[in-house]
């Protein structure tokens, strides 16, 4: 997630509405920056609702890895900038 042009000082927030993935097999990772070489903020798996994530930079990188065996409802996240 990259900010709009000219918004280089904005910080971002992810607010999770739903989180239900297969524990240890479906994993969401969030990095504090524009690539997966940035600081890994958190990774989640299972059904516990994650706390809000706040960036310290002007971008976040999300990666979701899943297998094909057990299907859960997934996740829903609200994105905001400030």
UniProtKB/TrEMBL annotation:
Occurrences of domain CUB (ranges): 1-82
Cross-referenced InterPro entries: CUB_dom, Sperma_CUB_dom_sf
Pfam families: CUB
Keywords for the protein's UniProt record, in alphabetical order: Disulfide bond, Repeat
Keyword Disulfide bond found: yes
Signal peptide feature range: none
CDD domains, per the entry: CUB
Gene3D superfamilies: Spermadhesin, CUB domain (2.60.120.290)
Protein name per UniProt: CUB domain-containing protein
Species name: Bos mutus (wild yak)
């Amino acid at each position: 997630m990259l900010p709009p042009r000219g918004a280089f000082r904005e910080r971002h927030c992810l607010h999770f509405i739903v989180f239900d993935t297969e524990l240890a097999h479906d994993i969401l990772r969030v990095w504090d920056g524009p690539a997966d070489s940035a600081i890994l903020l958190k990774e989640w798996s299972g059904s516990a609702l994650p706390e809000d994530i706040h960036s310290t930079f002007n971008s976040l990188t999300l990666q979701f890895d899943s297998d094909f065996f057990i299907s859960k409802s997934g996740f829903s996240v609200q994105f905001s900038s400030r």
